[in-house]
């Protein structure tokens, strides 16, 4: 099968087209013909080698963390799917590889594709959807009337999280550029902060939850936005000891993560708030819940641009520019 792989960590030149063997199918696996995949900042971090301490993939590696497609074959123990079913998924982190014509995915990571979406639209949803769900529903338990700040509201995670937070009854603030103000307001943002002109931490106060997608100083300033007992959840900040323990990392990696996150954890304790790092996991049950919100018209996908399969490397480079509004999708099957 045709796939896009890296033989070494590096920039865009490290990505190449290759002929790879069709995936082997385990008893609980589903073989999916991929029709569309989407690009995430996670793909860029994997490509550069920035996550090799916690995700030690073997090279050559097929990139890609999102898919929508059609079931081709199922393993002997699979009961929930049959050939011809349309599905979408974020594969488990140890079995990524959606920039390819086929992939074997464990049954529990799959969900039926939302009926109202095209393959390209559906492929844009799994990773950002699961990230938003696990941050706002599972970890923060956002409730009616709470105040939530979502950084980078025009990005893939941000554009989904705004819609999800509003569906949960939250009052939502977001940061973005002035050019995207009207657009994020249409998604449901109640307060829009132009990050180029205004320090959000000087105007937002007494928030219950912050979802940080930026890291760095934006993460540190986010502590001041929260009221005592609030939750600061980051997908870009330093991993914390709880994540290190849950990931099963070696002791020296756990020590390193503890040191990296010491500053933000100390600051959070001083302000009586809780800091958590989130690395989203695959979950087919949650994807079914997200599909219900999509088909019910509560959440809609935001697709910035669709690239042909032959332009996979260019799609990665485009995401790296930071100009994408929503998700960038690769159309694998014409």
UniProtKB/TrEMBL annotation:
Keywords: Oxidoreductase. Gene3D superfamilies: Medium-chain alcohol dehydrogenases, catalytic domain (3.90.180.10), NAD(P)-binding Rossmann-like Domain (3.40.50.720). It comes from the Bacteria. Residues 10-330 form the Enoyl reductase (ER) domain. It holds the Pfam family ADH_N. InterPro entries: ADH-like_N, ER, GroES-like_sf, NAD(P)-bd_dom_sf, Quin_OxRdtase/zeta-crystal_CS, YIM1/Zinc_Alcohol_DH_Fams. Coiled coil: none annotated. Transmembrane segments: none annotated. The keyword Oxidoreductase applies. One of its GO terms (molecular function) is oxidoreductase activity. The keyword rRNA-binding does not apply. This is NADP-dependent oxidoreductase. It comes from Rugamonas apoptosis.
């Amino acid at each position: 099968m045709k796939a896009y792989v890296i033989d070494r960590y590096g920039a865009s030149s490290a990505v190449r087209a290759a002929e790879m063997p069709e995936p082997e199918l385990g008893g609980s696996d589903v073989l999916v013909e991929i029709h569309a995949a989407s690009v995430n900042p996670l793909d860029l971090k994997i490509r550069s080698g920035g996550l090799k301490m916690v995700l030690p993939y073997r090279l050559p590696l097929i990139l890609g963390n999102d898919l929508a497609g059609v079931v081709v074959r199922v393993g002997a123990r699979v009961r929930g799917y049959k050939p011809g079913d349309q599905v979408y998924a974020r594969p488990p982190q140890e079995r990524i590889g959606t920039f390819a014509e086929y992939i074997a995915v464990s049954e529990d990571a799959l969900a039926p594709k939302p009926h109202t979406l095209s393959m390209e639209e559906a492929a844009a949803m799994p990773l950002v959807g699961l990230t938003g769900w696990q941050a706002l529903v599972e970890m923060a338990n956002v409730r009616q009337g709470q105040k939530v700040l979502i950084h980078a509201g025009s990005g893939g995670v941000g554009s989904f999280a705004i819609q999800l937070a509003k569906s949960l009854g939250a009052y939502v603030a977001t940061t973005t550029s002035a050019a995207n103000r009207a657009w994020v307001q249409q998604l449901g943002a109640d307060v829009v902060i132009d990050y180029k002109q205004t320090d959000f931490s000087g105007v937002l106060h007494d928030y219950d939850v912050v979802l940080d997608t930026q890291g760095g100083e934006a993460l540190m300033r986010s502590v001041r936005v929260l009221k005592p007992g609030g939750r600061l959840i980051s997908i870009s900040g330093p991993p914390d000891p709880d994540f290190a323990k849950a990931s099963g990392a070696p002791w020296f990696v756990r020590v390193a993560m503890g040191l990296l996150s010491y500053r933000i954890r100390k600051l959070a304790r001083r302000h009586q708030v809780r800091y958590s790092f989130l690395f989203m996991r695959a979950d087919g049950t949650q994807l079914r819940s997200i599909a219900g919100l999509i088909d019910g018209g509560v959440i809609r996908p935001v697709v910035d641009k669709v690239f042909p399969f032959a332009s996979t490397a260019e799609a990665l480079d485009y995401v790296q520019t930071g100009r994408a509004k929503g998700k960038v999708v690769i159309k694998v099957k014409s």
